[in-house]
Write a structure and sequence with these properties.
Layout (H helix, E strand, L loop, with lengths): L15 E3 L5 E3 L3 H23 L4 H25 L17 H15 L9 E2 L4 H26 L4 H21 L7 E2 L8
Antiparallel strand pairs: 1-2, 3-4
Helix pairs in contact: 1-2, 1-4, 2-5, 3-5, 4-5
């Protein structure tokens, strides 16, 4: 378990930070960028949750989903912060995202999507405040995914971690439509609308 009794350590004052295995790397290391973007996505989901209560009946179910996702994102950050390597028998095994977490996202996507009409165009971010913040979280999640795939090209990454971040952006998209009164408040893109 994590114990934080001091918030600042001065350990990063020279631009270095520690990974989950204790290795010191620059704060701009690709691995740090990847789990940092996951942390940003988590913060954006927290903002979305502030507005979910205004959605009435669907708000409670959506908030429960987002709460589980926020916890999963800490698991994902822990996974990404610890390079995959042969486990040292003296250490506790690294926390890794599991396929069951990806499966849960898929089940939630399917349940929300079953209530939605098929799209006839792309959706512009907006509608209800909750939906707008879910779109923001989705775009940050996509950035995190790009960083995780770049990291994967450089060194091994847990396949379930990559699947989770990929599925999460889909989940947040469908959740945004759900937060827009099941798509009724979606704002659709009209190609070339303002070209004159």
């Amino acid at each position: 378990m994590v114990k934080l009794d001091r918030i600042y350590t001065r350990g990063g004052d020279k631009g270095m930070t520690s990974l989950g295995n204790g290795e010191r790397v620059p704060k701009h290391d690709l691995r740090v960028e990847a789990y940092g973007a996951v942390d940003e996505a988590n913060a954006a989901i927290g903002l979305a949750r502030l507005h979910v209560a205004a959605l009435g009946d669907i708000g409670a179910d959506l908030d429960a989903m987002l709460s589980r996702i926020q916890n999963d994102l800490f698991d994902l950050g822990a996974d990404l912060s610890t390079p995959e390597q042969e486990e040292d028998s003296r250490r506790r095994p690294a926390l890794r995202v599991a396929q069951v977490q990806v499966d849960r996202l898929e089940a939630e996507i399917d349940a929300m999507n079953a209530r939605l009409k098929p799209l006839t165009s792309f959706v512009l971010p907006g509608g209800t405040p909750a939906a707008a913040y879910l779109h923001l979280a989705r775009t940050i999640t996509r950035r995190a995914e790009r960083l995780v795939t770049a990291l994967q090209e450089a060194e091994p990454v847990n396949p379930a971690a990559l699947a989770y971040i990929n599925r999460l952006s889909d989940h947040l998209f469908v959740a945004s439509r759900h937060a827009n009164r099941d798509g009724e408040a979606d704002i659709l893109w009209v190609p070339g609308l303002n070209r004159g």
